[in-house]
Amino acid sequence: MTPQTSVETALPAVPLTVEGSSVLHQMMRFRRPAWRSLSAAARTEILEEAAGALGEMERAVEGRDPALSAADLTGPTAPAVRQSAVYSLLGHKGDLLFLHFRRTFEDLSRAQADLARLRLSDYLEPASSYLSVIELGLYESTAKVYGELAARGVEPHSPEWKRQIEEVLDRQRSAMAPRLFPRIPDARYLCFYPMDRRRGETANWYTESMADRQRMMHEHGLVGRRYAGEVRQIISGSIGFDDWEWGVDLFAEDPLVFKKLIYEMRFDRVSAVYALFGTFYVGVRARATDLGAILG
Fold this sequence. Notes:
Elements: H1 6-10, E1 17-30, H2 32-36, H3 40-58, E2 61-62, E3 80-89, E4 96-102, H4 105-117, E5 124-137, H5 139-151, H6 159-175, H7 177-180, E6 189-197, H8 210-225, E7 231-237, E8 246-252, H9 256-265, H10 269-274, E9 275-277, E10 281-286, H11 291-295
Antiparallel strand pairs: 1-4, 1-5, 2-3, 3-4, 3-10, 5-7, 6-8, 6-9, 6-10, 7-8
């Protein structure tokens, strides 16, 4: 660990972040005995209603937020701020996972209500859920702007400080809009898990200096970049929203890449010393029109 300089100790310890889509994971169990008691005609009617509604939710609806530039709202990387996807879960932790990307929590509430209004919801029981917001950490930009402001003698949290910080955040929001408001990747497999950074015992992430955290996160990111062509990763922040600090969604065509990536990351210092992992959920993408086959 490198010693902290007087400049470092005087600066805020919290790295800057920019936030995008609101995210809700809903893990459901399917009430098969009750479903089997229905007539074939009733099951068909319920599935047709669900396929129509969920089919609409699957289609990405592009945002038209005036805060985003025109370039961010056109082309293949335009932000999709309203979209849902369904996954057939493997194992005992649930049967279906509904993933919702929306602009706001109010939009997530409407998506949750739309799902609850379906007759199919009478045969679904919540197993778990996770609420978060897509987040990008700006360690490099933070170190740069904090250093520049300190060199100019600008007092932390003063009006001038806040103005300069907001200018940096505005530039980053514009540049990273496609990553902040992404479409749900059209990959066959999903791996979702929540995680924390360790605090207590002999290692505490939150007492490390900004410089040390930046260095470790850079090394951590190098592992992920080696898998860039095989897996898509979307990180969401959940501090103050749910029981863990971050949610991680991995999307891939081959589920083995989840094992390889996460195992390799275990050996860098960020994961080996500071990472705590929650429950893992792995599912297969299920189109709305596939529900009948999945639910039998």
